[in-house]
Amino acid sequence: MTSDTTQTEPAAAKSENATEELTELIRSARVVLWDFDGPICRLFAGHSAAGVAGELVDWLASRGLHGLVTDTERDSLDPHLVLRAVDRRHPGSDLVAELEERLTKEELRATSTAMPTAFADILIQTWRARGARMAVTTNNSPRVVRAYLDDRGLTPCFAPHIYGRTQDLHRLKPDPHCLHRALNAMGAAPGAALMIGDSPSDFQAARTAGVPFLGYARNERKAKLLTEAGAVHVVGSLWPLLETLRHQAAPGGSGG
User: Fold this and answer.
1) 115: part of which helix (H) or strand (E)?
2) pLDDT tens, residue by residue, 202-218
């Protein structure tokens, strides 16, 4: 046995096991809970999330409220983090409601330049056609999700199961609230569902809800964040899911 063979065989076995585990995840899923920004599209592909965060911070400063966010929160360039920071200090206030509405309007603007995730549309349509039920469980506004899905012709695959940001901002992921809403509305047991997400907060929400999790990572940085958070199953493309579905739908080799 050569050294090359010694190195290749374990790698091949590992790859085969990963394929089998992915197949089982997909086979077992009766309900698929999708995060929105990441697995379905890159919402801020053409409308900078960092720019939106900066605008929210500037708006607070214009009202003399610059001190409501720390330097770390300002430097995060994450609009959701800015929103949650203000909500922690003034929960349920009119200020938070106005800030959330400003974020929603920016997210709606972003839908016009959002970039569909490769293979997401056809995967969603194929999976739905194979009998799985779909829901969106996201920290984005449900108005934004509906606008994007309408534009892509995907709304019938999900409606009415779109569960996004509410006025209860402490219920954003990693809190599993939106997952529980979806499961309860669809009458689904957590073990019969599969969550597809691209962030540690998605993984944490799924774990707390008892829902199997599949991570989607469009780059190595996101993959590292997911695996460090504890995610076991992470893919860099949705293509293997589509191929697995096609093979399952046609065990005799016809279909696809």
Assistant:
1) strand 115-116
2) 999 999 999 999 999 99
Q: What is the length of the chain? A: 256
Element containing residue 4 per DSSP (H, E): helix 3-28
Q: 3-state class of 31 per DSSP?
A: strand
Q: How far apart are CA 244 and CA 241, in angstroms?
A: 5
Q: Rounded to whole angstroms, how far apart are CA atoms 18 and 33?
A: 21
Tokens of 241: 């899911």
- The pTM of the whole model exceeds 0.70: yes
Cβ atoms of 57 and 82 closer than 8 Å: yes
pLDDT in tens, 101-158: 999 999 999 999 999 999 999 999 999 999 999 999 999 999 999 999 999 999 999 9
Q: Two tokens at 20?
A: 């089998």
